[in-house]
Design a protein that fits this description.
Number of helices: 3
Distance between the termini: 15 Å
CATH class: Mainly Beta
Organism: Bdellovibrio bacteriovorus
Largest sheet: 9 strands, mixed
Number of domains: 1
CATH superfamily: PK beta-barrel domain-like
Protein name: MOSC domain-containing protein
CATH topology: M1 Pyruvate Kinase, Domain 3
CATH architecture: Beta Barrel
Helix content: under 10%
Oligomer: single chain
Order of helices and strands: EEEEEEEEEEHEEHEEEHEEEE
GO molecular function, one term: molybdenum ion binding
Structural class: mainly beta
Length: about 260
Amino acid sequence: MKIEELFIYPIKSARAQSVKDMKITSEGPEGDRQWMLVDENGKFLSQRTLPKIATIEVFQDEASLTIGFQKMFFKISKNNSFKRKITVQVWNDSFEAALEPDLYSQGISQYLGVNCKLVRYAPFSQRRVRSLQEETWKPEVRFADARPLLLVNTKSLEDLNSRLPEPVSIDRFRPNIVFHGQSAFEEDGWSRIRVGEVIFSQPKKSARCVMITIDQITGEKKGPEPLKTLSTYRKEGTGVFFGTLWIPENEGLIQKTDTVQVLA
């Protein structure tokens, strides 16, 4: 099953960056959700409450992160002494992160219209994934909601779009790996896969929220769809699911020329 797209999200909830290859570490795709915006109490901010975050442009290379909005761009060097620490909160997890220079936070705050701080997942940060992995492999997750990697099937999107009054694009679901499957939602039944050099296991269905109703280009909420329709046939208990979240068993490289192989 062929890979269609690879994405990373350098800043949580900000615009995606399409990549040709993706290095997988114990924390997930390298550079993915490496930065995050938090409020004055250190609690994470996302499109759920600030849809405009979707319009913040990002580009990450080996040396720096470029952030852009309203024709303004600035670069943050990856060479950082991480002298300033702050306790941050992502859902029920509290841990330390590095606080970026105030100048960057002030610029983003002015653009979004709220006071916020830009933080980075640093070498001293530690947020473990609860898993059944052996103790010799201790996967982490940076600022993502749950697990390090999200896999989405284009066949599942086709199935959803066939039920919608207007189709939506794959960017609404903010995946890391987009693949062309054989049937819709077949990924729900997988327990172990190989993508490129990496084996993934311990999947979890991805619960969707109001974020999938936000246009990822304009940052505007587009009504109740596609969440409304998705909830009519993909609801289990209180959750509405689309895509699967995975934990890597090893480090390695994934390329757009690779395929998804089902191992179990």
